[in-house]
């Protein structure tokens, strides 16, 4: 099952004009980090995006370096490597690695059954949430033998998600993970933090 609906501005890059309503779930997942909406994400934009959702400086720096080293050239087939390490949103599905949950298909569309499987298999304590131990078991359970790059990618992605979005009880809730997959989670978090900042300033 694919998640296709979204609201926003058109994206534009050097090769194509794509309307956000036609984007895959994976494209919408990463589009938050395209801070100037040009269809290309640079490391400094990823850093800014992580900071906007409450990530610390060190984690934001690490995430931006790791993500762009891992994905840049995969999303730019046939092009000469760039020292700016851009990621092209149109081709983000090419960066999909092995040893993942399968909740995105090969075209970056959301797969409902695979998403549900995460919690059916590994959400043993609460059903609709993952403890950190269950998250670790899930990341280990989806490994493909000798797919070491995929192991690292899955470990980093899920641990960052847990660090930034676990609740006060240390649980990664099912709606939170769904929102991460469909691209709405980061926008929600930024709005929440912006609102908190406005309230704090008003109370000073």
The backbone outline, from C-alpha atoms, is: globular
Class by alpha and beta content: mainly alpha
Over all CA atoms, what is the radius of gyration? 17 Å
Poorly predicted tracts of residues: 1-20
Summarize the main sheet: 2 strands, antiparallel
Distance between the termini: 48 Å
Number of helices: 8
Number of domains: 1
Describe the structure.
This protein has 204 residues and is mainly alpha-helical. It has one domain. It has helices at 25-31, 43-52, 57-71, 112-122, 132-141, 148-165, 174-182, 185-203, and strands at residues 11-12, 17-18, 40-41, 87-88, 129-130, 172-173. The chain has a two-stranded antiparallel sheet. Strand 1 (11-12) and strand 2 (17-18) form a beta hairpin. It is globular. The protein starts with 10 loop residues before the first strand and ends with a helix.
Short description:
This protein has 204 residues and is mainly α. It has helices at residues 25-31, 43-52, 57-71, 112-122, 132-141, 148-165, 174-182, 185-203, and strands spanning 11-12, 17-18, 40-41, 87-88, 129-130, 172-173.
Question: How would the blueprint of this fold be written?
Answer:
Elements: E1 11-12, E2 17-18, H1 25-31, E3 40-41, H2 43-52, H3 57-71, E4 87-88, H4 112-122, E5 129-130, H5 132-141, H6 148-165, E6 172-173, H7 174-182, H8 185-203
Antiparallel strand pairs: 1-2, 3-4, 5-6
């Amino acid at each position: 099952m694919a998640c296709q609906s979204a609201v926003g501005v058109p994206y534009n890059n050097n090769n194509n004009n794509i309307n956000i309503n036609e984007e895959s779930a994976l494209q919408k997942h990463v589009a938050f980090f395209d801070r100037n909406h040009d269809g290309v994400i640079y490391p400094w934009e990823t850093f800014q995006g992580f900071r906007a959702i409450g990530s610390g400086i060190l984690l934001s720096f690490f995430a931006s370096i790791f993500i762009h080293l891992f994905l840049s050239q995969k999303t730019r087939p046939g092009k000469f490597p760039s020292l700016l390490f851009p990621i092209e949103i149109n081709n983000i599905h090419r960066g999909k690695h092995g040893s993942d949950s399968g909740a995105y298909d090969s075209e970056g569309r959301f797969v409902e059954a695979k998403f549900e499987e995460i919690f059916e298999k590994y959400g043993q304590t609460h059903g609709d949430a993952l403890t950190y131990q269950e998250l670790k078991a899930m990341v280990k359970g989806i490994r493909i033998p000798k797919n070491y790059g995929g192991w690292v990618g899955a470990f980093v992605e899920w641990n960052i998600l847990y660090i930034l979005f676990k609740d006060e009880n240390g649980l990664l809730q099912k709606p939170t993970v769904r929102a991460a997959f469909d691209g709405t989670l980061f926008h929600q978090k930024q709005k929440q933090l912006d609102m908190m900042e406005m309230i704090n300033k008003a109370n000073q």
